[in-house]
Automatic annotation (TrEMBL):
Protein name: HTH cro/C1-type domain-containing protein
Pfam family, any one: HTH_3
Domain HTH cro/C1-type residues, every copy: 39-93
Taxonomic lineage of the native organism: Bacteria, Bacillati, Actinomycetota, Actinomycetes, Kitasatosporales
InterPro entries in UniProt: Cro/C1-type_HTH, Lambda_DNA-bd_dom_sf
Organism: Streptomyces spinoverrucosus
Gene3D superfamilies: lambda repressor-like DNA-binding domains (1.10.260.40)
Recorded GO MF terms: DNA binding
Length: 109
């Protein structure tokens, strides 16, 4: 194999690797935005300010702002605290081509 063919093959591998990394990055952004929208929508549905939700969840208003701005990655305990504070169940569905996040209100029995 000539050096030129090796170089082309190496460049092709780099481009393919970059494309895969870019797609993974886009999926992460879509998930972060879906979660941020779900928090915002449920908070508005409840008529709460960021400060009020923060107080209910034992967080700071700044943390709620970062969550709604998709600027932070929530931990599992934080997800639970948010769901409890918003009197809801958190549903997350992940597929190859979609990410769905929803806080579903608890129904009064």
């Amino acid at each position: 194999m000539s050096h030129a063919r090796w170089k082309l093959g190496r460049e092709r591998q780099l481009v393919e690797g970059y494309a895969e990394a870019a797609e993974a990055g886009r999926a992460e952004v879509r998930l972060a935005m879906a979660f941020a929208k779900a928090v915002y929508d449920r908070r508005k549905e409840l008529g709460l300010s960021q400060a009020q939700l923060a107080e209910r969840a034992g967080l700071t208003q700044a943390k709620i702002s970062r969550l709604e701005g998709a600027d932070t990655v929530p931990t599992l305990p934080l997800l639970r605290r948010l769901a409890l504070a918003m009197d809801s169940t958190l549903n997350i569905a992940l597929d190859d081509d979609r990410e769905e996040v929803a806080f579903v209100a608890h129904t009064a029995a």
